[in-house]
Amino acid sequence: MGGAFLLINKNSAPSINGNLNLFDQKVDSFNRCISHSNCDFCTTDELCGFCEKKGNNGGDFDHFNADIRSITGPCSSKNSTNGLHFIENIEYEWNENCHTDTKYTILPILLMVIFLCSFAIGYAPLPWVLNAEFYPLWARSTCVSLTTFCNWEFNLIVSLTFLTLTQEATKYGAFFIYAGLTAIAFLLFYKVVPETKGLNLDEVQLLFMSKKERQRAVSALQQIPMSKIENNNGFNYK
Fold first, then answer.
1. Are 52 and 60 in contact (CB under 8 A)?
2. Which residue, 14, 221, 222, 227, is the most exposed by fewest CB within 10 angstroms?
3. Reported pTM
4. Which residues of 1-28 are buried (b: 16+ CB within 10 A; e: fewer)?
């Protein structure tokens, strides 16, 4: 996803700082908007926008306002007649979504569909399987409740911070950050979580005990007569 948004950004129409006499340089955020190098950066910033010559693949930065016009620049209200923006017989248009950049726009959608399909049949149910194995019976319901709460809490955090993160770190930067956090989580998971394949629940619980607790539990199990264990499990053949 990060790579797809990076391609879209690199393919976006460049900003051309044309006739600066058209701009009121005292406008708030003027320096912020003039620093953006292309349409993608301009339209991602809520304080800026992108105004271009109609039919051109390049434009001037404009300061964004509440409507479809800007406070200053070729697309500002004072340069508008019936919604059209003419400067020296040249028509300018307000480009809100970088609509000229369509070469890679399908990539994020395609990658998101592939991710959702792969995740749904792969890792999506895995946390719930692990939750059912890791905890002793006496603590299982409480621990599953806590982990479920943490899961949805982080989902909420991601949802609340996503738009802010895309503005501060760019759209592709946000996904690169997510990728980095995922890589760290994978390494932590690989190092900390033991393999439980082929083990029963009692053996799984031993894996999460300290060395001292594990030795104590094994010693206690060894002291229980085998006949009693078989009786408790319904396998008494004597």
1. yes
2. 222
3. 0.69
4. bbebbbbbbebbbebeebeeebbeeebe
